[in-house]
Amino acid sequence: LFQPAVSVGNVGQLAIDLVISTLDMTKVGYFYTDCLVPMVGNNPYATSEENSKELSINAEVYLLPSKKLVVLQIRSPFIKNKYRPFCDTLLSWVKSYNCARVIVLSSSHAYQRDDEQLLGTPLRYLLTPDLEKAVGSHIQELKWKEMEKVAAYPGVNDTEKVLHIPGGGITKLLFTESCSKGIQMAVLLKFCSEGDNIPDAFALVNYLNDWLQLIKSEVNTSSQWKSPSSWRLLFGSGLPPALF
Questions:
Q1: pLDDT surpasses 70 at 218
Q2: Domain extent for 90
Q3: Residue of 77, 74, 83 whose CA lies nearest to 32
């Protein structure tokens, strides 16, 4: 199961858009919850005038049987104080349908990195203990950087370290609950800032592809992913040619 966290820049949701669109996944249902702001809109993955009239809501489920892949796309923010009820419902759903693994695509505020997190790649990962046993050696071969823990009380006590994902929304809660419930979960995230976050989404989905090889490619590039039709005016229509 792939799912985004509603986090800074909506990077996880944009990356999930790329996965659904590129793999041409089929919508099979929705995830009913009162924890998300209600919304309805046109089909974000429309390929013709006919299917552009289909409606989409705030949490929908897509399927690709050939890869045994299920995707939960979330399109609206959480209602205040509803993180935990959503987390409990989601993880119960994961267990009831025997999902082998869960991968959460997320992001975190770039400006809140500590000195260690400023070094190297802006991409990070987390694995629950149960998933670490299964894929830890492969992840080490990829030479990825694990999300660093930070001082709980900076400048006062730098020895006590905690997991801190500012701007990550429900990411930390999902991860810690999965650790305690024995669920195999990975979190892949990117440090970023608000703005045009399409490049961040491409970077995150390429990071995912390095591991799982959703699409075969010797070199990950943005051009190998199919942007959905809903992205056409996502960050405006561009400047009028007369201005140049």
A1: no
A2: 2-214
A3: 74
